[in-house]
Amino acid sequence: MSELSELYQQVILDHNKKPRNFHKLETANRTAEGYNPLCGDQLTVYLQLEDEVVTAISFEGSGCAISKAAASMMTQSVKGKSKQEAETLFEEFHGMVTGELDEEATPNHLGRLTIFSGVRDFPARVKCASLSWHTMRAALHGEEAVSTE
Amino acid sequence: MISTDNILLEPTLEEAWDVERVREDFPVLRQTVNGKPLVYLDNAASSQVPQVVIDRGARYLQEEHSNIHRGVHYLSMRATTAYEGAREKVRRFINAREAKECIFVRGATEGINLVMHGYGRKFVGAGDEVIISAMEHHANIVPWQMLCEEKGARLRVIPMNDAGELLLDEYDALLNERTKIVAVGHISNALGTINPVKEMIALAHKHGVPVLVDGAQSAPHLTVDVQDLDCDFFVLSGHKMFAPTGSGIIYGKAEWLEKMNPFQGGGDMIRSVTFEKTIYAGLPTKFEAGTPAIASQIGLGAAIDYLNSIGRERLVAYEQELLAYATEKVSAIEGVRIIGTAREKASVLSFVIDGVHPHDIGTILDQEGIAVRAGHHCAQPVMQRFKVPATARASFAFYNTKQEADVLARAIERVIEVFS
User: If exposure means fewest CB atoms within 10 Å of the residue's CB, which of A40, B115, B146, B326 is most exposed?
Assistant: First the structure.
């Protein structure tokens, strides 16, 4: 069960139970919806982008523990970042969960997001962890919907 | 006095049904997953294949392979004989009047699409109505929606109660002179409900309306007699009944199949072709354009032989006993809710756990070697009806055991532990 406890770490379970920034953002000027048709996960990411900086971010939706915790921590990590910094974080997070980035060997900005590194041992769950990140990036780019299919 | 209790005791069904002996027929079951013996409970998605079916497919490829219905040469004749032999096995399996009423397709989905194109696009017009039920698989929703959109027809839906049983009074009220077809699942893949299709067919026939029965889930778990049901169409998928993927049947009453448009155009489905006009072949080849999945369909025939050899009625009874046992074990766990509690059910156990998403359940069960389906089961309207985003579904076959149901129950307790 070691891989399992690696996946369902206490921090992830906590964000699942009490997701942060889990509400609609009235001041949002960018919104995108993300779907995972495979499992029915659905979420909306609200962004307030001012002078190329994410000044506020939130999300709503339903999904598994991994997708909810990932969304919750994504909002915490991206808030206050420039558009470019958010893009970089997306690339690094995506690289880590797909196993393309060795976060221990390569310098990165992931910080506590590395608790999601266990996801790469569960290929069926990679999309759960990355859905909110794809959705956030779609919102940054002014796209309205993204699907993990 | 000497007690005779032990002598008179009837063997339990599980003893009568030698499940360990049956399991030996399925090589895929002899493996470990994540260090645990595989517990395969995803039979409603796709069932496993016994050695005799694997051997039959291999023998075809090694000794008999050629294209069917074409050559006068030896191999083509052997391939054709084996292929048509499989059709006859299917005919007997569902008790169709004639083998030509059994059209080979790659599965139930293709069968429904064949009826939608062949019957629907010819006989359904603007203002007409198509009736389906609230518990259909997407395969029995989307083709009819496409038809209704194209023709300006209306899709009507038979509602169900909280147990997952169709409301027959409401169904009766939906039938009218505009109804052109009823398409209903025999067994719900998401809930396990066995629908009273014989009664539903009789009601539709009072209005002269033909009925398609989606038998993807029923063919492997019930004995099916299409003449007794009096259904106009019946579809089944081989890969849900111990045969390879790419095999399946659409049964149709000859009188309907004769009147219908062909489905796909191509080789084999023609009598003669000129650039001015093509004359279509008769049944069943009118609906079988192109080279089919010959090895898979021959495998379907072998799977039917296998099912007959182990005894279908005992199989049904054993699965019912397994379902009752697993339902009792799983529903006794605090925080677990069973979705689909119809009185008449097949061996499908859909459930949710308070505060745990089914996807997480699926991952944790997989770590215990247990294969279940987690998701919407291609039945999103069912999920909406029960106000859940998804369910976890354990679906049993005759090779599953009560011990496996125990393993499932313990693993569910483990899920609750992880998330507590």
Answer: B146
